[in-house]
Amino acid sequence: MRNILLIISGSIAAYKSLDLIRRLRERECNVRCILTKGGAEFITPLSVASLSGNPVYGDLFSLKDETEMGHIRLTREADVIVVAPASADLIAKMAHGFADDLATAALLASDKKILVAPAMNAQMWKHPATQRNLRRVEKDGAVIIPPSAGSLACGEIGAGRLAEAGDIVKAILDSLSLREMAGVKASSALLSSGASRHPLPEGGGFKALVTSGPTHESIDPVRYLGNRSSGKQGHAIAAALAEVGGDVTLITGPTALPDPEGVRVAHVTSASEMLAACEKALPVNVAVCAAAVSDWRAEAASVRKLKKRGGAATALALVENPDILGHLANHPKKRPILVIGFAAETENLLKNAATKRKNKNADWIVANDVSGGKIFGSDNNEVTLVTAKGGEEWPRMSKEAVAEKLVERIVSYIRKKK
Ligand code: CTP
Questions:
Q1: Same domain, yes or no, for 77 and 224?
Q2: CATH number of the domain bearing residue 141
């Protein structure tokens, strides 16, 4: 469990910290919050307490707060301190070492890494005083998570919008032990940590292949057989593997997603092409088959566009596609140490996934219930990890969070095997 002290200061963006707390808890972080007087003008201590599951602190001179959890202990028990949103006023106070309220006293007393995510009006952001203060805060060792540009709550357009919650979470996790656990350098460009990047134990790194997205099986020059997979989950897994230092090849069917950073990408269309690209990527230590491979293809795709037949029924002969997961898991010479498949089921989730694991000779199956169309295309996922030991239900979380959790498991599995 990682402990995060989140300081929420007076900015209209304070409401976004609620989403940040939720996302951090999804990633198994314990979040304690200090809500400044200004912050409490925008959101209530009750909503912060309900979402964080912890008491909210606000008053430096509260006898109750200081005896239960003084400002020194708040910082000592944190692994990292995050100021989000950081108002121009709080940044100015940090730059000058003020300690006249709980937030500033805690920041001054801190012996931890401090991440600062500013949010303010564009003119305030541009003002030389703010920029000067920020440079000072950064020089004192804080990491700045820059705001983005766009239309601001005040109606003006410019820089000053709080960074996206996902980017703040990423910066926080980069500064925390997930990366240290894998022995790699925090990869975020936002961080200036000097830790050295080296992959998994005993050198040599680890190689991974990930399949993602749907496959399209040609029927004729204008039509194909496809499915509803967006590729979001597979792409997130490839990105998360690269984040911990993996040498990753992503083999993806047609999706609308950009290629993840730091990953070698092979774009394919059909199942046969996907299989050939997987074979080319071998040997790897880990294979994650997240693609929704079409089970069938047309027996003979037509080179000419098929025409309607005046109302008469048209038959389309289909043949089964090769099973890529089964192929990798039963590979005679180059079977990866860990082969992970997915199972999209509409009923008997655990039973069907366990059968699929055995039949395909996979080590793990990530099973999800796709009944009612609740997963395809969505940003969230609710999965059960099925291993030889049985099923482990994970709570509903974002696809990025599923990817990170899965990658943590992969890393610890390979460490034991190496
Ligand atoms: N898979 C694959 N190649 C295929 C079909 C599936 O690699 N031709 C992989 C998927 O990437 C996924 C797993 O197998 O990891 C499960 O796919 P799914 O379609 O759910 O299972 P099927 O084997 O097709 O079984 P069924 O459709 O009967 O549920």
A1: no
A2: 3.40.50.1950
What's the mean per-residue pLDDT of the chain? 88
Same domain, 172 and 221: no
Domain end residue (candidates: 140, 155, 176) = 176
* pLDDT at residue 309 greater than cutoff 60: yes
| pLDDT > 50? residue 182 | no
The residue among 189 and 175 whose pLDDT is bigger is 175
Same domain, 222 and 244: yes
395 alpha carbon to ligand 1 midpoint, in Å?
A: 23
Q: What is the pLDDT of residues 3-39, one digit of tens each?
A: 999 999 999 999 999 999 999 998 889 999 999 999 9
DSSP label of 190: T
Answer yes or no: 289 catalytic. no
Residue from 273, 323, 347 to probe ligand 1 pocket by mutation (most atoms less than 8 Å from CB): 323
| Ligand 1 pocket test, candidate residues 289, 358, 369, most atoms within 8 A of CB | 289
Residue with CA closest to ligand 1 atom 20: 343
Cis before 283? omega within 30: yes
Q: Are residues 110 and 234 in the same domain?
A: no
Q: Decide if 383 contacts 366 (C-beta within 8 A).
A: yes
Domain count, the chain: 2
Range of the domain at 260: 184-305+313-417
Sign of CA dihedral 343, 345, 350, 355: negative
The per-residue pLDDT for 170 is: 87
Name beta bridge partners: 32: 5
Tokens for 194? 């000097």
What is the DSSP secondary-structure string of 54-122? S-EE--TT-HHHHHHS-HHHHHHT-SEEEEEEE-HHHHHHHHTT--SSHHHHHHHH--SEEEEEE---H
Ligand 1 pocket at CB < 6 A? 211, 271, 289, 291, 293, 295, 321, 323-325, 341-344, 356
* Count of CB atoms situated within 10 Å of the CB of 258: 8
List the catalytic residue out of 33, 154, 278, 289. Answer: 154
CA 344–ligand 1 middle distance (angstroms): 8
Among protein residues, the one with the nearest Cα to ligand 1's atom 16 is 343
Do 359 and 265 reside in the same domain of the chain? Answer: yes
